[in-house]
């Protein structure tokens, strides 16, 4: 202890000296505190280094100049399977680096670790475990110098087996993905090619359709024109025929009334037949006239009460009827339609006149009018229990001059139903018939915008 009370490390040296007075002892006390502290700090430093290397996850080796291991940490022992005692007797290269994985020997003179003259960072290699298995590593090498002299090196490495496995898996996935993308791209390209082809085909079709529709338009314009011509022609012909007919009828009438005394019975009978024939011809001309007028007629649409119209026509028919023809009319109330008043009158007139005419021989005739459902759609109908017709000819009825019954039995011109069809078509509707011989007939017609009150 010093005079001031502080303690210090001391090195004691004693010397015994002999002089003329006898002997004396000399003690030399040297203060070695600094030296002691240096030793302590070295011990501490060693302890720290050992803790670090013992706990490091990296594998650490120290080798002398000849490549003999002089130190390895626990991580290096765990990874390689060796202890320092087991491998310190030969260069590290000969224990863990002597062969390539493909079986070729790895000469020490080619070993980058043994020949490292400068620091090497992150170089990849493959080492061999004690059990002979290979494992991939990433190495860091630092040469060791002491007083400017090369004394060996420090080797640090990481076992990257897992990392490599993940990399390989990733690569495999990447390759699979690339193949998939390639396949999909190919399929897509094929689809695009097909689409292009079908697009082209569609374009051609469109071109064709355009051409056809142009042709159709032309045709329909031509048809319209010739139709128009035909109508004007038939109208003027019918019109012009009426005048001479009136002349024939008029003069026949004069002959019968004013020359009755000079004509014998046969002459009178002939004249009566001339008048009957003229009347028939007049009907025919009138029917033809109204038929041809329909095409040029300007339709005006309005809401119409068909029940009322049927009622009025029924009264007219009854009033004009010959005695003995009794008909029961069953008319559904409040049946309305949207159409042209005049034209729909002609339709109902024709259909009811037919029903009336073809029930003439029935003792209990019945004519019905109303609305019914066909295929879920509302349609008008006129039904009678007259002579009916053979369904074989159902399609023929609506043609001009088409008659299924003889002129002798049932008078007519064969234009009525053709007129009906023309009118219904003009309304954008449909007309058809069903019948059974001797059981009756039913005529249906459908108009767009059918309404019931
Ligand atoms: N209600 C009906 N019952 C039976 N047959 C009919 C009926 N209506 C029309 N027909 C048939 O359709 C033909 C054509 O009818 P239509 O064109 O009106 O001519 P028309 O009445 O002048 O004979 C008729 O001659 C007849 O054979
Ligand atoms: Mg008729």
Automatic annotation (TrEMBL):
It catalyses: ATP + protein L-histidine = ADP + protein N-phospho-L-histidine. Its EC number is 2.7.13.3. Residues 1-44, 121-172 form the PAC domain. InterPro entries: BphY/WalK/GraS-like (IPR050351), HATPase_C_sf (IPR036890), HATPase_dom (IPR003594), His_kinase_dom (IPR005467), HisK_dim/P_dom (IPR003661), HisK_dim/P_sf (IPR036097), PAS (IPR000014), PAS-assoc_C (IPR000700). The keyword Flavoprotein does not apply. Signal peptide: none annotated. Residues 50-87 form the PAS domain. GO terms for biological process: osmosensory signaling via phosphorelay pathway. GO terms for molecular function: phosphorelay response regulator activity; phosphorelay sensor kinase activity; protein kinase activator activity. Keywords: Coiled coil, Kinase, Membrane, Phosphoprotein, Transferase. It is an enzyme of class 2 (transferase). It comes from the Bacteria. Residues 236-451 form the Histidine kinase domain. Residues 163-190 form a coiled coil. GO terms for cellular component: membrane. This is histidine kinase. It comes from Candidatus Scalindua japonica.
């Amino acid at each position: 202890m010093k005079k001031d009370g502080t303690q210090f490390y001391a090195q004691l040296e004693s010397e015994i000296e002999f002089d003329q007075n006898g002997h004396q002892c000399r003690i030399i006390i040297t203060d070695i505190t600094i030296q002691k502290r240096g030793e302590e700090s070295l011990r501490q430093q060693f302890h720290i280094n050992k803790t670090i290397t013992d706990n490091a996850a990296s594998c650490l080796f120290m080798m002398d100049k000849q490549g003999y291991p002089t130190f390895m940490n626990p991580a290096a022992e765990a990874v390689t399977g060796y202890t320092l005692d087991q491998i310190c007797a030969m260069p590290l290269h000969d224990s863990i680096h002597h062969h390539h994985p493909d079986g070729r020997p790895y000469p020490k003179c080619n070993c980058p670790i043994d020949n490292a003259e400068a620091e090497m960072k992150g170089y990849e290699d493959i080492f061999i475990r004690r059990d002979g298995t290979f494992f991939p590593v990433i190495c860091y090498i630092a040469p060791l110098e002491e007083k400017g002299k090369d004394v060996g090196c420090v080797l640090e490495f990481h076992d990257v087996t897992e990392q490599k496995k993940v990399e390989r898996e990733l690569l495999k996935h990447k390759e699979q993905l690339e193949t998939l993308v390639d396949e999909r791209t190919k399929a897509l390209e094929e689809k695009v090619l097909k689409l292009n082809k079908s697009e082209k085909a569609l374009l051609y079709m469109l071109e064709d359709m355009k051409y056809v529709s142009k042709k159709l338009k032309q045709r329909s314009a031509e048809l319209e024109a010739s139709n128009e011509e035909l109508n004007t022609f038939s109208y003027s012909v019918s019109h012009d025929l009426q005048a001479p007919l009136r002349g024939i009828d008029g003069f026949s009438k004069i002959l019968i009334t004013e020359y009755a005394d000079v004509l014998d019975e046969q002459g009178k009978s002939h004249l009566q037949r001339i008048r009957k024939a003229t009347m028939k011809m007049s009907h025919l001309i009138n029917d033809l006239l109204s038929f041809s007028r329909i095409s040029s007629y300007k339709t005006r649409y309005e809401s119409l009460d068909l029940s009322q119209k049927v009622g009025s026509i029924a009264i007219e028919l009854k009033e004009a009827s010959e005695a003995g023809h009794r008909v029961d009319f069953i008319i559904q109330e409040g049946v309305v339609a949207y159409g042209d008043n005049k034209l729909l009158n002609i339709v109902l007139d024709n259909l009811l006149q037919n029903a009336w005419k073809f029930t003439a021989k029935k003792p209990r005739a019945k004519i019905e009018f109303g609305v019914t459902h066909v295929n879920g759609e509302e349609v008008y109908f006129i039904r009678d229990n007259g002579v009916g017709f053979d369904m074989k000819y159902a399609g023929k009825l609506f043609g001009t001059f088409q008659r299924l019954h003889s002129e002798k039995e049932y008078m007519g011109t064969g234009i009525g139903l053709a007129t009906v069809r023309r009118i219904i078509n003009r309304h954008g509707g449909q007309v058809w018939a069903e019948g059974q011989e001797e059981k009756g007939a039913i005529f249906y017609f459908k108009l767009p915008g059918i309404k019931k009150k």
